[in-house]
Task: inverse folding
């Protein structure tokens, strides 16, 4: 295979299936699900070796000092004895998702597929099952596209290879913890917390000085990074490959090598594929930009996607005491994204036995009930000329702006469009009327053929007051999550 240059690779166009389906679900599930201790349980393997952290204290108390009981020793406890891929896939479809899949490998170096190049994998250890393979079959069976998420670029910087008393420094376990480097630092140079505040220009993931000062990934590490991707592409044919932060550590030639291989494989298989990445980890045109726990404040003229998690505390994986977002909140995220030319991925964190918490299941099904009734205003739509109107505005923009919470009301409107129809989505339940202040700046009243509320076959009464379109909803059953108004246009000079 000849690796292509960027000029040959930066040709991404959003596939029709993503434009239609808009919403997907993926799972943060792995060894860290066993301790289920946060915040952000996926970073447990990093923090358990860092003295002074809650994770270190928890680990010492429950399992023993990490010098005697390392991260690898949790693997036998990750049994997944109740995991049922078909149940998961059916739940995701019921939630209204159009694509879904697992994290194939997180920062911890543990592969969730049957790997021939990494013995530290779920088919040989722990569950002793090919998690990626089982989910690929089940998700495709439900008519969804298949996603695999890769966080493994950060495996290079994730574990303290220089702390000699830890198993992370033992070459026997390099397949899990990553290739040993910077060992000359010695055990006395432990993690040194560097205070980080959002908005300071330093990525949040660079939470310790060592993230800056470690050697660049070796040629061998970059080659393994690629080979793992190749193995999943060849074995499971994902329709969507997601990258977390950290790909900027991978040398340019290997990122081009990956895109060359994935694009060529997709052409052979007749697939329309997606690659998503964060910030500037790939050049513009390599795929679709993904915002972590964030959104854009305004409509964008390029496609984008954001990710959030069903839990309400940035846990990302399963935690026994975690709180959850409401279905309403998550639906508002999705509606807002779609109106601004975006898409959404929702994370669910299963328990170590392979079951999904009842509360998370309920939220997903509640989302699905709304989408089943009102999905006409979401699926296969495009943004209208205006994305929104209303009093409630995002207080921040981009990744991690989700932390700045806003509470929408029925006066907050989001617009989408399909063919002749415009959808005005009220982010709540209007009582007697809806006042659309934007629409008549772009639409003559004579173009309006009829106005309906989705889920109600009877036409709504409406009138014009100046530039406001006033729609009566009195005595109609509105929806507390979001009420959808369908404006049917009469193409007076056309079809």
Result:
């Amino acid at each position: 295979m000849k690796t292509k240059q960027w000029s040959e690779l930066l040709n991404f166009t959003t596939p029709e299936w993503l434009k239609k389906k808009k919403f997907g679900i993926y799972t943060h599930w792995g060894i860290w699900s066993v301790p289920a201790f946060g915040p952000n349980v996926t970073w447990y393997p990093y923090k358990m070796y860092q003295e002074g952290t809650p994770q270190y204290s928890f680990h010492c108390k429950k399992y023993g000092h990490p010098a005697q009981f390392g991260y690898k020793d949790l693997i036998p406890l990750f049994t997944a004895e109740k995991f049922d891929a078909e149940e998961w896939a059916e739940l995701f479809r019921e939630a209204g998702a159009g694509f879904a899949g697992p994290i194939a490998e997180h920062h911890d170096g543990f592969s969730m597929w049957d790997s021939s190049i990494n013995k530290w994998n779920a088919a040989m250890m722990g569950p002793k099952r090919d998690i990626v393979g089982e989910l690929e079959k089940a998700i495709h069976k439900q008519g969804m596209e298949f996603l695999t998420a890769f966080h493994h670029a950060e495996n290079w910087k994730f574990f303290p290879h220089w702390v000699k008393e830890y198993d992370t420094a033992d070459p026997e376990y390099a397949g899990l913890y990553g290739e040993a480097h910077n060992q000359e630092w010695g055990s006395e140079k432990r993690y040194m917390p560097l205070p980080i505040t959002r908005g300071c220009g330093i990525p949040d993931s660079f939470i310790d000085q060592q993230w800056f000062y470690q050697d660049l990934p070796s040629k061998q590490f970059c080659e393994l990074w690629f080979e793992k991707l190749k193995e999943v592409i060849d074995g499971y044919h994902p329709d969507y490959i997601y990258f977390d932060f950290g790909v900027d550590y991978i040398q340019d030639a290997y990122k081009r090598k990956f895109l060359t291989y994935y694009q060529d494989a997709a052409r052979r298989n007749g697939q329309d594929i997606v690659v998503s990445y964060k910030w500037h980890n790939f050049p513009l045109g390599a795929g679709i930009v993904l915002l972590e726990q964030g959104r854009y404040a305004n409509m964008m003229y390029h496609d984008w996607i954001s990710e959030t998690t069903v839990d309400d505390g940035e846990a990302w994986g399963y935690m026994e005491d975690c709180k959850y977002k409401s279905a309403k909140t998550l639906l508002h995220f999705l509606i807002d994204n779609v109106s601004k030319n975006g898409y959404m991925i929702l994370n669910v964190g299963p328990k170590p036995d392979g079951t999904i918490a009842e509360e998370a299941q309920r939220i997903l099904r509640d989302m699905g009930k709304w989408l089943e009734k009102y999905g006409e205003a979401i699926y296969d739509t495009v943004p209208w000329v205006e994305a929104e109107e209303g009093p409630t505005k995002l207080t921040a923009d981009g990744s991690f702006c989700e932390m700045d919470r806003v509470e929408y009301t029925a006066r907050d409107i989001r617009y989408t469009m399909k063919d002749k129809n415009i959808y005005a989505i009220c982010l709540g339940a209007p009582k007697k009327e809806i006042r659309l202040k934007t629409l008549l700046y772009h639409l003559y009243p004579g173009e309006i053929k009829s106005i309906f509320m989705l889920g109600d076959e009877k036409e709504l009464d409406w009138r014009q007051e100046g530039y406001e379109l006033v729609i009566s909803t009195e005595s109609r059953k509105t929806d507390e999550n979001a009420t959808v108004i369908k404006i049917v246009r009469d193409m007076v000079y056309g079809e």
